[in-house]
Design brief:
It is a multi-pass membrane protein. The chain is mostly helical. The protein is built from 21 helices and no strands.
Length: 437
Amino acid sequence: MTILLVLLSIAILVLLIVWAKLNPFLAFLISSISAGFLLGLPANQIAGSVQRGMGVLLGDLVIVIVMGAMLGKLVAESGAAQRIAGFLMKIFGQKHITWAMAITGLVVGIPLFYNVGFVLLVPLAFTVAYQYKISAVYVGIPLLAALSVTHGFLPPHPSPAALVAQFDANMGLTLFYGFMIAIPTIALAGPLFARTLKNMKAEPLKTFQAETKPESELPSASNSFFTALLPVFLLVGTTALNLNISPESSLAPIIAFVADPGIVMLVSVLIATYTLGLNRGFNMKQIMDLYTVATKDIAMILLIVAGAGALKQIFTDTGVSLVIAEGLQTWDIHPLILAWIITAIIRVCVGSATVAGLTTAGIIAPLVTTMNVDPNLLVLSIGAGSLMFSHFNDAGFWMYKEFFNVSIKDTIKSWSLMETIVAVAGLAGVLILDIFV
């Protein structure tokens, strides 16, 4: 009966988003309160439980997500993203154009949120397609595959960062494992899959052609790569130090402090403020204005994350999480596969990768302590499932269709299938890593 009530709570969330067209944050709040009543939580405790869940999750994530948005905005506005794309194009040339676009998406996609990366880089893909007289879909799919993978797999993107916090995983290790899975996944869903799309016709609107900055206004390639990838260097580097130093060492507390994801992102933004900002002729007011715009862009993402925290807390406070864990233990299915399946189903129903991932986290969280499952791989399994088969209820589906100006049929054959390949290949990568971790 408890499982049915949980499913009813999730159904309420799905219906509010899909049928009632409610904002996901409002839908999470309503479904959280509904779940509290359905699961027997005393009425005078429901509001407190909702507030506590929102506060705990946001407390772990606000710095990471906000700083990530600021860094991404500066990387875009300074021309660093354009420099990275141009540099890689020169190295790979026309013969390996799809690989250049995939690597561009991976590098630039780390600091940029998906929608920003899409709007910024897709016009560059159109320019490349026009220059070499090739299909825009053929050029664009590898780029979008890389952006999707970074969005679903790699912190500091909101969903994986939130999952790391919910499962008490290690952000550096998750990022390291995520890269190991991301690279072959991008290769399969990007350049290799794109070979089947060479003849797909697309007529991108001239409105979406890239407005490139003059070469003289762009930062150097070394500066661009260093600043964009600095969070990766710091997270992976400090994690490696943490794993190889004795807890009794006098350096352990200092390394632990520097390794905190919030501190890593703060340091990265402060360094970027100089390397891509002040050092490139921006004044402090211009930089701070960019950061203000960046925080506005991700305000709703923060609220959705908070709403997911509320639902998870309701499940915890009602004791339902333990009941779910006990029930799932009797299922003859690998927990990583189970997490992927649940996420994929919610993703197909709701359309939002972030909502799908965070909703699954509330259901599956007890498995971390009750079953022998690596929390870092659980983050990646859910991240892969959250990208499953994007279709009509996903904003990304329509952005792709309109920007590339292709038919619904071709959108499904290219975009939707690419997302499905990412989801399946990501799960395969997680399961292979699970053998060795």
